[in-house]
Amino acid sequence: MSRAVTLQIDLSSATPAYRQIVDGLRTLLVSGELRPGDALPTVRSLGLDLGVHFSTVAEAYRTLSEEGWLELKRHHGAFVTERRSPAPSPEMRAEFSTKLRQLIAQVRAGGLSTEVIGGELRKLAGELAPVFKVAAEESKQKI
Amino acid sequence: MSYAIMVGLTVLMGLLYSWTGRLNGRFFFGRTVSAETRGGETGAAITRRYLAGIVLTTAAAAGIAWLGVHAGHRSIGAGALLVEMVAFSVIFARANGQARDLAMQEPGGDAQQSVREVTLLEQPAYWVPGVGAIVLPAALCAAALTVAVWMAGGESGFSAGWDALNSSMDGQGYASLLGLATGMLTAAAGMLLAFRSSARLRTGMARYTVRALISLAWVATALMVGLLAANRMGTAISHHTGQGVIGGAMIVTLGIVLWNQSRSRRYTPPQVELGADDRWRWGLFYVDRQDPALFVQSRCGAGYTLNYGRVAAWPITLGLIAYVVGVLFFLPMRR
Q1: ipTM surpasses cut 0.85
Q2: Which residues of A touch B113 (CB under 8 A)?
């Protein structure tokens, strides 16, 4: 039985459709909703279903393939691959911290209270807990 | 084709339009309008005017087709049928405009949906034929034709066999029937190939359209192989028998298409097409250059229509019009 894994994009958003597809799929891949071996729809099929040009989907798939998430097979679509997380660089951690702070500043300026922001961060940490657990086990095995 | 059939066709067309124009419970003459509004006083008045227009046009077209019997002009009935179809489209477009005005009055009415969501791991819940399976009926016809040519030519060779088969087909009244079978097969296989690569296949409605096109391809194949076999057995086809075969093939075709297309009322159109009121011109023509789909679920009735934002939609439409006009005007003249 197939799992209900959905991808959502908003055509009225300022973010390009290609970027939204990449971000949406990456979120599903990181959270484990898309697992190694899963076959994604073909470029043509996903383009038709989303109502966007095939090249938009193809570009998104190529980006994720370059990041090591997908394997692209001609005429057969894209498959989720087993991906080893690369060792994070100190710059990446700094960039994440900066972006997170910028985002929090932006939503606080927009009127969101620190309680709500804290609640959302705690919720996110809860969702990521299984991922942390897997990562910790992988680290132990490496040691 | 007799004029009694023409009058019957005009009435059948009227019944069809009165049914399909309103059958999709989600839309009201091609617009997104809530059930309360379309069931209200203004909505009911739009429906009444639409049905009155259909009834009057049907009566006029049937009358003109009937007059053709007495006037002695063979193409009057066919012309009445074509004019009737155009008139129905105009009546629908008028109702669509009134439905749009009605939708504007609703809070948040006529709003366009920009969020699109798809299920990633789901596959079509039916068999989608591959290119080989689509080409198979045409390959069988080609094989049957080759055998027939070989039988007609004997030891005289392929070229002589081809000439002998041609003259035998013409002499025995097969030409129109073979034209019909070839047209049906080409149209069904071509549409199936195009549909398979340019329609949103993961919908319940797509299943019935694929099924209808496969059925039509095999009906055309059976017709062609049957005609070739009958010709080789030396069976001559009289004018009336030819009419009967054409009428029978058209009834079977219509039955297959109607049965499958009527299933559309059970299925919600894909999300991309739901909030797309501004992409429907007069509720009849879907125009979206950004949408890669060539086939979209119709809002003016059951089944599918073409996306006229795609260039490929135009030659297909012209081909279908030429085929319908050819069947209506050309075939009745063959005696």
Answers
A1: no
A2: none
Token pair, residue A136, equals: 């910790």
Residue of chain A nearest B270, judged by CA positions: A49
Cβ atoms within 10 Å, residue B186: 15
Question: 3.90.78.10, 1.10.10.10, 2.70.180.10, 3.40.50.150: which CATH number matches A17-80?
Answer: 1.10.10.10
Q: Which of B92, B11, B141, B60 is nearest to B301 (CA)?
A: B92
Q: Confidence class of residue B335 from pLDDT cuts 50, 70 and 90?
A: very low
Give how far B294 is from chain A: nearest CA, Å: 9
- For the segment B273-301, what is each residue's pLDDT rounded down to a tens digit? 887 788 999 888 999 998 999 999 888 77
Range of the domain at B72: 3-105
Which pairs count as long-range contacts for B211-216, CB under 8 Å and 24+ apart, including other chains? B211/B126, B211/B260, B212/B256, B212/B257, B212/B259, B212/B260, B212/B261, B213/B188, B214/B129, B214/B188, B215/B256, B215/B260, B216/B184, B216/B187, B216/B188, B216/B253, B216/B256, B216/B257
A49/B291 CB distance under 8 A? no
Residue B99 in domain: yes
Tell whether B179 and B288 lie within a shared domain: yes
Q: Picking from A72-81, B201-210, B320-329, which range would have the lowest pLDDT averaged per residue?
A: B320-329
Q: Is the pTM of this model over 0.80?
A: no
Residue B291's closest CA among B318, B270, B320, B262? B270
Strand partners, B116: A9
Question: Which chain A residues are within 8 Å of B201, Cβ to Cβ?
Answer: 45, 48
Q: Is B119 on the interface with A (CB under 8 A)?
A: yes
A47 touches chain B (CB under 8 A): yes
Residues on chain B touching A54 (C-beta within 8 angstroms): 292
Residue A9, helix vs strand vs coil: strand
Per-residue pLDDT of chain A (143 residues; tens, 9 = 90+): 567 899 999 988 889 999 999 999 999 998 889 999 999 999 999 999 999 999 999 999 999 999 999 999 887 789 999 887 777 778 888 888 999 999 999 999 989 999 999 999 998 888 877 666 665 666 566 55
What are the residues facing B47 on neighbouring strands? none
Residue A85, min C-alpha distance to chain B (Å): 24
* pLDDT, tens digit, 9 for 90 and up, residues B210-240: 988 999 999 999 999 988 888 888 777 777 7
d(CA B31, CA B54): 19
